Amino acid sequence: MKVFLAVVCFLVGIVFQSYAASQTDSLLARLNTVLQEKEVYTNARLERIDRYRQTLKRTKSPQQEFVLLQRLAEEYKTFVYDSAFIYIQRLQALAQRLNDPVKIAYAKVELGFVLLSSGMFKETLDSIGTLQVHGLPDSIRLEYYSLLARAYYDLGDFDRDRFFTPGYVQLGNLYIDSAVSCGPADSYDVVYLRALKNLKNENTAAALADLNRLLKSYSLTPHQLAVTTSTLSYYYISREQPGEAIELLARAAIADITTATRETAAISSLAELLYKKGDIRNAYIFIQQAMEDAIFYGARQRKAQVSSILPVIAAAQLTSVDGQRRLWLTYSVALTALAILVLVFAISTLRQLKKRKIAEKALLEANKIKEEYIGYYFNINSEYLGKIEALKKAIEMKLMTKKPDEIRLVVNSINLKKEREELYHSFDKVFLKLFPDFVTTFNTYFKEEDRIVPKEGQLLTTELRIFALIRLGINDPDKIARILDYSIHTIYNYKARVKGKSLLPNEQFEHKVMQIQTIKE
After folding, report:
1. Radius of gyration (Cα) for the chain, nearest Å?
2. Residue 298 half-sphere exposure, CB side, CA atoms within 13 Å?
3. Is pLDDT of 7 > 50?
4. CA distance 16 to 284
5. Hey, CA dihedral for 275, 281, 282, 285, is it positive or negative?
6. pTM of the predicted protein model
7. Which uninterrupted H or E stretch holds 460?
8. How far apart are CA 150 and CA 483, in angstroms?
């Protein structure tokens, strides 16, 4: 009987594990599908933004203008930091003109949200630290106290210091207590904040009860679902239960993508867990998306976090691909040897044909590798700048701990503008080494007076650099804008101006650029 029960338990365990694995695989497949459709969700948000902008241009009522600015700020605050900051600044200015204390307070809290989302802790505390919330509506007070709680919890997570972190957690607890007093006890915000506090203070049973109740019994918006599942996943990560954490983070990432949310940490955490599990392919796809999101939004601390794990996952992906290539090469050699034995009488002809094909393939491969190397090299250096920004921010944070004498020289030695110029110079140098005739050939597409000639000491101009990236296969204006640190509108303007002066038809111009050859071997 005991043996029978043991066998039954073993079989049940296998079935349960298989079911859990299939559930996870299904979620990851769904996430990959949603990633391929991300432009659809992004365009939907951009269309809403455009409608609000057009309506804003026509409105003459200050009250209606405030509502539209409010909607634009709401659209941008988890989408693009720079745009969110601009519209919230306009929101603040209008609130001041209306002399409305409630609107002024609302705008300040919204500014604090985007500053914190971008990783600017000090600026967040400075912007809302002087706000007097007594007498304001409960909704604003709740958001104000929640924001302060999140700021101090994030500071604790950022520092991870045994001396300072407990103090930040204690401050976060106090502000959460104030926040939950401003809303109904069974509202989403109050239940979530209570769970967050319990999780931060290791009251795990209460935290899990509230978070699971939100997921099972509440009708959550996609954003609320993403926040709740991400928060719950950290419990399982801390308990070394990656299976549950992966499912929760996959659900969070799907919700973020379908709402075009770019201020998110779920997909980077998911990539790290999948890397540790050995799923290198998905980990690489998701960590690339995490870096794209961090750059798109302008989240400094996110770029630093992703930059710390991206090279590790990328190296593992490269190793995996190389291993597969070696395996296929082994099979190819074995099959070739067999073919040689079978076709002994035709060996001479086959050998010559094979050598010719291998030589052609090797040449094509070599050119492809060279081109991809430039793009890879450029992206890695861009990430390096992100690390420098994060390092500078981290050091400035240490200044808040009143240790300026230890690090002031390090802070002052960082010159991001110079680093970026050196990066562009390195890119120009490597690109022109592989495409030595690029500038000369490019200029044949214009009249002599319209040709682009770099200044003395300059290898490529901005216009030439844009089309150099296009020659490397980077056609997305959004990606080009992020690489060169311009707005997407600036990239469109540069391209339009260059094409407008060309002797070629606009629709043929980029195709002609792609025909510019690399260095001849």
Report:
1. 28
2. 19
3. no
4. 28
5. positive
6. 0.57
7. none
8. 31
Quick one: 308 and 395 in the same domain? no
Q: Can you tell me the distance from the alpha carbon of 91 to that of 66, in angstroms, rounded to the nearest whole number?
A: 6
pLDDT recorded at residue 122: 87
User: Are 28 and 176 in a shared domain?
Assistant: yes
Q: What is the 3-state secondary structure (H, E, C) of 369-413?
A: HHHHHHHHHHHHHHHHHHHHHHHHHHHHHHHCCCCHHHHHHHHHH
Residue 164 pLDDT exceeds 80: yes
Spell out the residues 6+ positions from residue 100 whose beta carbon is closer than 8 angstroms to its own. Answer: none
307 with 429, same domain: the answer is no
Residue 159 has φ and ψ, to the nearest 5°, of -75, -45
Residue 337 C-beta-side C-alpha neighbours within 13 Å? 6
| Whether 414 contacts 500, CB under 8 Å | no
Answer whether residue 410 shows pLDDT above 70: no
| Residues ≥6 apart with Cβ < 8 Å to 65 | 56, 59, 94
Cα distance between residue 6 and residue 354, in whole Å: 59
d(CA 7, CA 29): 33
347 is a domain residue: no
- Residue 79 and residue 81: Cα distance in Å, rounded? 7
Q: Which of 266, 261, 249, 270 is nearest to 297 (CA)?
A: 261
Give the count of domains, the chain.
2
DSSP 186-227: TSHHHHHHHHHHHHHTT-HHHHHHHHHHHHHHS---HHHHHH
CA distance 453 to 305: 40
Bridge partners of residue 502, in order along the sequence = 446
For residue 160, give the DSSP letter. -
Q: Can you tell me which residue has the tokens 């992906």?
A: 317
Counting every residue written for the chain, the total comes to: 521
pLDDT digits (tens, 9 = 90+) for 321-365: 555 555 455 545 554 554 565 465 466 556 766 766 654 544 554
Q: Which of 76-90, 311-325, 451-465 has the lowest mean pLDDT?
A: 311-325
- 64 and 161 fall within a common domain: yes
**How much helix, strand and coil, in percent to the nearest 5, is found in the chain?**
80, 0, 20
- Give 28: exposed, middle or buried? Use CB within 10 Å, 0-12, 13-18, 19+: buried
For residue 187, name the pLDDT band (cuts at 50, 70, 90): very high
Domain that holds residue 167: 13-215+300-313
Tens digits of per-residue pLDDT, 277-326? 989 899 899 989 988 988 888 877 777 778 778 788 878 777 765 555 55
pLDDT band at 15 (very low <50, low <70, confident <90, very high): very low
Q: What are phi and psi of 78, to 5 degrees?
A: -115, 15
Q: What is the mean pLDDT of residues 186-191?
A: 95
